[in-house]
Write a structure and sequence with these properties.
Blueprint: E1 4-8, E2 12-17, H1 20-29, E3 36-37, E4 40-44, H2 45-57, E5 62-64
């Protein structure tokens, strides 16, 4: 199982952390004011690539669905 999944929902993207390490990463790198939707962070398309790059640079896996 990947640490994160990324799901394109049209105008927004959902970034869902699965592992404890992934949840810690979100706490450290994503604003506490971020919007959440059923366990996933809501992200605008323009921000998702740098977020994915940061996740991968920190040694975690991302599955894009």
């Amino acid at each position: 199982m990947p640490d994160f999944t990324v799901k394109n929902e049209g105008s927004l993207v959902l970034l869902e952390p699965f592992s404890d390490q992934a949840r810690d990463w979100v706490d450290e790198h994503i604003s506490e004011n971020a919007q959440w939707y059923f366990g996933a962070v809501v992200v605008e398309h323009r921000y998702i690539e740098p977020i994915i790059e940061g996740i991968q640079e920190d040694g975690m896996t991302v599955e894009v669905t």
